[in-house]
Structure formats: C-alpha cells, structure tokens
Amino acid sequence: MDHKKLEALLHDMSLKEKIGQVFQISGQLLVEDAAAMGPMQEMGVTKEDLALAGTVLGVTGAERIQNIQKEYMEQHPHHIPLIFMLDVINGYRTVYPIPLAQGASFQPELSKECARMAAREAAAAGLHVTFSPMTDLVRDARWGRVMESTGEDVYLNGLFAKAMTQGYQGDGLAGAETLGACVKHFAGYGAPDAGRDYNTVQLTERTFREYYLPAYQAAVDAKVALVMTSFNTVNDIPATVNKTLMRDILRKEMGFDGVLISDFGAIGETIAHGLSSDRADAARRALEAGVDIDMMSGAYPEKLEQLIREGQVKEELLDEAVMRILELKNKLGLFENPYKGADAEKEEQVILCPENRALARKAAEQSFVLLKNDGDFLPLKKEEKIAFIGPYVNRKQLLGGWSFLGDAADTVTVEEAAREMASDWSITFAQGCQVLDPETRLVGFGNDQETCGSPDDQQALWEEACDAAREADKVVLFLGEHFLQTGEAASRGVLELPQVQQRLLEEISSINPQVAVVLFNGRPLDLRLVNEHSQAILEAWMPGTEGGPALVRVLTGGSEPVGRLPMSFPYCVGQVPVHYDEFPTGRPYHEPDQNRFLSKYLDIPNRPLYPFGYGLGYTAFAVSKVRLDKQEMTADETITASVTVQNVGHRTGTDVIQLYLHDVSASVVRPVKQLKGYQRVTLEPGQETQVSFEISEEMLRFYTADGTWASEPGVFEVMIGESSAVEQKAEFLLR
Ligand code: BGC
Fold first, then answer.
1. How far is residue 606 from each of residues 436, 438, 586, 589, 611, measured CA to CA in Å?
2. 621-734 CATH pick, 1.10.10.10, 2.60.40.1220, 3.40.50.720, 2.60.40.10
C-alpha cells in the first residue's frame, strides 16, 4: 500500500479505532476468552476495545492465527489486520543455546543463522514479530536476565545485536520466512542496582552513552522494526514515560523511526514508580514520550479517549503512533497478505526439521567454554571406565527460561545421546540427586517446580551415584542451576550451585577425585568449590534441544570446546558487578603488592575467577609479543598490530585471538582495556600463523569530556592475546 493510502486510511478511522491500534491484547483472550477476560476487565478493557485491538501477544500456530485474523478482519470497520507478536528468543520449537551461550561462541554469524531458522519456524506458525534481540549490557551476575544477553562487552554486544536483527528480518519484513525484530529493553535495563530485577538503574550519562546505548544503536542501524521500552528508570524517570530518552535520544539522535512498544504492563507501572499520578497521567506521559503500543497495561484503551476528548492530549500524537503501526503492518505486507507466512503444512515440515536440529547442535557445540582441564583430563578416552553422574545426566529441560514454544520432550539428553553416539564406550549413568535442594521453594513459580521424591528415593539415588563413582576411572558430574533460577524475575543473591549438588560434588570427589564438572546455568556462578574438587570444568550453559549430542561429541573428543566467556565469572558474589573493562584507580593494585592503601579487598582477590574472553581448547597456543608496523599515526592513517600464534599442543585446534586497546591519558579516564576486534584461527600441531589487526582512528574514539564522540591525540596501548587477562603490550602515538 502506498503512503497516501495509509494516510487516507488513518484519516478515515474513528477515534476508538485509532486507540485500538495502539493497544496490544493477550492472545489468551482470543483463544480462551472467558478465563482471561477477568484480568482485562480489571485493567478497564471492554469487549469493544478488544474487537479493535491492533496487535496480539502470545498466540501462535498457523491455523489458529489464520482463523483469528480472518474473523477479526471481517468484523473490523476498516478490515485492518492484526500483528501477531511473541517472544521467540533462542529459537521457536527448535531451541538453540540461550543468548548468553551464543555470546560465548564469539560467532555472531552463527547467531544470525539461528535467528534466521527461528524466524522460519515462527513465521510458518503465523507469527509476525519477535521480541528479540535483547541487547542489554550486563555486568552483574545476580541479575537473572543476564542469560538473555550476549554479555558484558559493548563491542561484542553490538555485533550480536546487528547479526540477530539481520537474521530475523532477512531481506525484508514482508518475506514469508522472516519476522520483524524488536530490540529491547530500551534502555539500560541490564544495570539494576544490586542485580535485583526491575530495580532502579543509576548510570552516569557517560557510562550510559558509551557502554549501554551502542548495542541498541547497532540494532537500529540494522533497521530493527521495533524497540521495546524497559521497566527501569533512566535519570530517575521510568524509561517508558521518559520523553528525553525516547524522543530526543532514541528517535532524534539514534535515528529510530519504527514502532516503540512498552514492556508488559510498563505504562501502568509508572504509578508504582512514583512518577505518574494515576492511569490517565501514565497514558498521557507514555504517548507524549512517543510509546506507540501499550503492551498489556490497558491504560491506553481505558484513558486515551477521555484525555483526547478533554483536550489534555493532542490527537496528533495518537495519529503519529497509529501511523507508525500502520506503516509496520504495511512493511510486513499484511494489507496484501494478512496471513503472511502462516502455513500449516510448512509449519509441520520446518519445525524441528533435521536442518534446524543440526544447527542447534552446532550452535551448542560452539558455545561450550572449557574453564579448566588439568592434565588433559578431557577429552575422555574410550578405554576409560566412565561414570556420568548428576541431575543433568538425563534431564530434558536444557532449554532455558524463555523457550515458550520449546518442548523439553524434544530434547536429546546427555544420557540418550551417549547411549547412541558412544554405545561402544564404557559409561554408567546415575542421577545422584535432584537439581534443587528438597526444601527450596522458588517464590511465585507455583507448580513449575519439581518435587524431590521421598527421603528414601533420594537416598537411593545418592548411593547409586556413589557406587558408580567407586567403579569408574573417571567421573563426569553434570550439575547446574534450575532453569527457573535464571531469566526474568530470577535474581539471586547467592551465586553457588544448589547445596545438594555441592554436597554431591564433595562426596563423589572424595570417593573418586578424577572428576570433571559440566555446568548448566544461565549466569556466571561462584565456582570456587567446583574448582577445588575437579580436574576439568566445562561450561555448557542452557544448550537447547540438541545440547546432549553436542556435549557427548565434545566430551568424547569428536570436536573441541571453542567458546570464550562473554561475562566474567566472579571469584565470589562480593566482587559483582565485575567486568574486565573497568577504570583504573588512583591506587591500582598489582598482586602481590603488600601496600595496605591500594584498591583491593582484604579477603578476596580483585581478579575474577575466570575473566571475560577466557576459554581453553584441547590443544595449547603460544602467542608472541605484539608487533606494530609503525610507532605513530595520524587520524587518517592506520597501524597494523600483529602477533604470531603457534599451536604448541598435540591436536588441531582453534583459538580466539583478541585485540584490546587502552588510551593511556585522556580528557576523561579510560577503561584499562577494551575489546576492539578478534579473529579465530585454526592450526594444526606445530603450525604457526601471523594474526594482524588494523587499528584505525575510529577505534580510538570515545565520549569525551565535552560530550563529543571523538579520539584524542596521545599514547595508546595495544594488547593482543587469548583473553581479557592479556598483559603484554606495545604502544603507539596518535598524532
Ligand atoms: C519482558 C519482555 C518480554 C515481554 C513479553 C516482559 O515481562 O520483560 O522481555 O518481551 O514480557 O513477553
């Protein structure tokens, strides 16, 4: 439809119809009707409002969506189609590793492929928009939603934001196999005070702009269709009604011209924040801030009509929002084909198709991070007697908290995979214990929680595990968090494994100290105990539908772990938020300095247990000193920094060589180092290669003291190595 027609349509719509467009309803209402109507009435939403709603959240399935769309359009005065939206985060029915794990792959192009395949399944099931990517920068492992992010680094997050957006949206929103992407949560949601979800965010303008905004910007530059507001405050004003943030920063400065949607109920919540005086005030503020769609607070349908009729809100503001929504519907091609990709036959074919399962397996394999491997404990060897022990040995729930459409029944467990892929190996299997301590109740999760069986059952599991450990040459313990312990509303103040699993680890390792631990979790954990009682540690995150086979392949040496940590693993919770790109202090501490008055703790080290960018493989590499092709450059020149990398181990392997820069003195203090590039190299034993990075002036820019994005002449340090712990450096001068 051309723009003139959209304008004519808008012009012809009644006020009620226009308000309908800016209101998102729950799909439950359309499929379950009566049961869900109660909460809607509480929100002040009537059946008439529902009949005019513009978008739907949370309903899927080709046939169902086709039927709803048909019925809805027939009764709508202007036959305007609905947009169907849902959180397709790490996959639709085929579930890929959680986003934090995808970050660990350091391979945005692989995430692009996962997003493309997720879009293909979801679009066939009738969906039009996904609420992904989540590009919030995260530095605090207590926050449960770190699992939805790609980590703590501004550069890496930007690469993933762009790749995922492109993956979902493909060559255009109207395609039968694409989804509109929605970058979230704008802005700064990843920095809640003390890691508590929904809590206040307090960031300096400089930190906010330099670290938190760039990943959203990367999605905007990749033409993301929607942006979602965040629950938190920005500069003490809830983001959802923060006019400066939305109109000045997002729209004007960052150039976003798509649809802005609130987070779930967020407009109404600005009252509890202590900003809006009532629901009418909240609706007015949100519309004035430029929020186009009210997701589930009901304040728009309840209050906008009265506000506009009384002249408290200008109708042009509503028109502006409605036009953006109509434009989105137009870009999605819904006026021409309201069913877009919905196709029941194709849905059957693509969901969990071998191609998608293969991709899920590959993505999982590439996301595992080997944190420790003393004495080349891994890979396991066929001639060894092995015991696989722990609550994750035969667990189907490897999907993570946002896998609404994922069905744990589709998952291949580690045990299932091992019985098939390593059928001629000597492996025994024992559960040992449940994931959670018997007495743990996670507040608000109701019946989702599992019961732990009777004390006798628990004892039997325990003894079976001890027997298995006794008989084995090597034990692999499969331990982790419960999937409900990460994700939204899942902040934790203790970052350890559940106690029962810690006890299992202690007991098993006292029976047989030849222990490797494989971890399933959605956040960095305090791994001190795991470290103490194991020879090897493999971080497997929540690896998705094909997590089992991917793990068996890596553990048995069919491939090596190649992931690198996208977030620092703290020494203990007392360190968080801990991130590698911290600022220097006036009293820097370098171990083992004995001076009392330095920036350090009395009882724990400054360094995280495992730093950002870190990860081992099954071979070892030597990285030479950094060489620069010249010592000085002007703004229009570049410098080439190189190292020689050699595989000094005994098997072919891959390393991720990382470039970090540091501005030694500037108008504001600069981080001790910042990732500016990386390259993957695969080398045979003994083979060496030169890895080079071109450093340009653009890479040296930052948010300067006078608020401009620029570089400043002076000395810079160049560090190239295998993780953010790299120390060896060379220097150059920017003239
Ligand atoms: C979450 C969003 C999500 C939305 C819709 C909210 O609670 O914060 O990330 O997209 O629900 O499911």
1. 31, 35, 15, 8, 11
2. 2.60.40.10
